[in-house]
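Technical annex, item 7. During the second reporting period the consortium partners agreed on a shared format for inverse folding records so that results from different sites could be compared directly. Each record opens with the tokenized structure and is followed by the designed sequence. A conforming record, contributed by the partner at site C, is shown below for reference.
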């Protein structure tokens, strides 16, 4: 009740939704869907109240591409915001390029204990002992399952200790021709083309796209272990016929639940964004459970965390105010409010645990359990990762079209190495 009251209080905050480019304005840039902006404005209103007379304005962009282009343009022309939201893929360019402030010297002065944040998420924004953003929220990649479809098929719900063999057995039981016309009406699962979705499946099978250090793909993406994992994943469509491939756009966020909520897919790879969508859907939403991704027998469970954090430009003129703004936007109240709204998992461990304890559906606890086996994404360490990620769907597409997995992996590995500046042998 206390957290719900705090959320309601924040939602009644009223601030500017448009923003300003005026140089004297104290501006914060972030991404937020339109329906989420009232919450963000409520959080920002607390900072305005604590700093009367300071012209604090906000600027939002609904899409990742639009937001990133506008942010980097403002940094390039020397008119940066006082604070801004960054994702893992922004870290190499901003940190290695010397564009963001090391927050470490300021944390103790503003009462922030960096150790209170999830260690894996914290590592996304660190270089050695330096910390370049305060983590706002995150999500591990997990699997959602439709309890209604499981119950109708008379099969047990999955548990966190399951393997690929367990998953495949359930997928077969849940792939069904419901009307007897010889065509599948209900698929056990869905294979994603976007690398952001299938990379953790590759990890859970012992493989990887890049070798340790992130400097080459040859010898790792085309290793026997990786090829076996990729063959198995694509084989859910080609060999096992228990999955439908998702066609079209590759901007996977883990919150596109159409095939899942309609009952056409029983198990779906998702992020925490799915929680907010499930809560917003009106009526007819199936009973849902979340569980860790299954792992290949003989290999430990694994997933990836996608996180965001607030940073300050290195040449900020009012650093103290900017750092205080970061604290206000990432403190326990802010994280609890976003968590209660289902937007993300709080990065502060204590807040996340409290959220899970109050969730009678058990959803948040499932995400937390998965986070214990999570790794930071390559995007946080490899400057060319966006280019690498753009190539990776070709690997899945090629195998689905009939290419030999080993040959396809080798060809894509060499393409990636050229992107990374490594000459082919």
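Designed sequence (site C submission):
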């Amino acid at each position: 009740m206390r957290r719900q009251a705090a959320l309601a209080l924040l939602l009644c905050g009223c601030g500017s939704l448009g923003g300003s480019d005026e140089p004297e304005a104290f501006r914060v840039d972030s991404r937020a869907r339109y329906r989420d902006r009232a919450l963000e404005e409520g959080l920002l209103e607390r900072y305005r109240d604590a700093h009367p007379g300071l012209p604090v304005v906000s600027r939002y962009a609904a899409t990742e591409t639009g937001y990133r282009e506008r942010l980097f343009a403002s940094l390039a022309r020397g008119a940066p915001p006082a604070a801004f939201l960054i994702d893992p893929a922004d870290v190499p360019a901003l940190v290695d390029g010397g564009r963001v402030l090391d927050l470490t010297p300021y944390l103790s002065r503003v009462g922030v204990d960096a150790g209170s944040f999830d260690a894996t998420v914290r590592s996304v924004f660190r270089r050695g002992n330096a910390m370049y953003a305060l983590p706002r929220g995150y999500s591990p990649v997990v699997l959602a399952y439709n309890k209604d479809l499981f119950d109708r098929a008379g099969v047990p719900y999955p548990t966190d200790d399951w393997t690929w063999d367990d998953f495949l057995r359930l997928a077969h039981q849940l792939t069904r021709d419901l009307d007897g016309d010889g065509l599948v009406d209900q698929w056990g699962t869905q294979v994603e083309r976007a690398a952001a979705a299938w990379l953790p499946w590759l990890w859970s099978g012992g493989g990887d796209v890049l070798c340790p250090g992130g400097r080459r793909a040859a010898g790792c993406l085309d290793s026997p272990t990786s090829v076996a994992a990729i063959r198995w994943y694509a084989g859910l469509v080609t060999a096992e016929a228990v999955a439908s491939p998702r066609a079209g756009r590759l901007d996977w966020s883990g919150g596109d639940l159409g095939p899942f909520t309609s009952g056409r897919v029983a198990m779906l790879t998702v992020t925490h964004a799915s929680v907010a969508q499930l809560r917003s859907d009106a009526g007819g939403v199936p009973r849902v459970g979340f569980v860790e991704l299954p792992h290949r027998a003989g290999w430990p469970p694994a997933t990836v965390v996608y996180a965001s954090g607030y940073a300050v430009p290195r040449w900020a003129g009012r650093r103290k105010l900017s750092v205080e703004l970061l604290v206000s936007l990432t403190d326990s109240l802010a994280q609890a409010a976003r968590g209660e709204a289902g937007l993300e998992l709080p990065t502060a461990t204590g807040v996340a645990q409290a959220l899970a304890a109050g969730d009678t559906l058990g959803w948040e606890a499932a995400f937390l359990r998965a986070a214990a086996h999570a790794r930071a994404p390559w995007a946080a360490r490899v400057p060319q990762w966006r280019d690498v990620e753009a190539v990776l769907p070709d690997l899945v597409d090629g195998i689905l079209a009939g290419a030999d997995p080993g040959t396809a992996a080798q060809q894509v590995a060499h393409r990636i190495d050229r992107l990374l500046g490594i000459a082919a042998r």
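Residues 142-304+383-419 form a domain with the D-Maltodextrin-Binding Protein; domain 2 fold (CATH 3.40.190.10). Residues 335 and 353 are 12 Å apart (CA to CA). All partners now use this format for quarterly exchanges.
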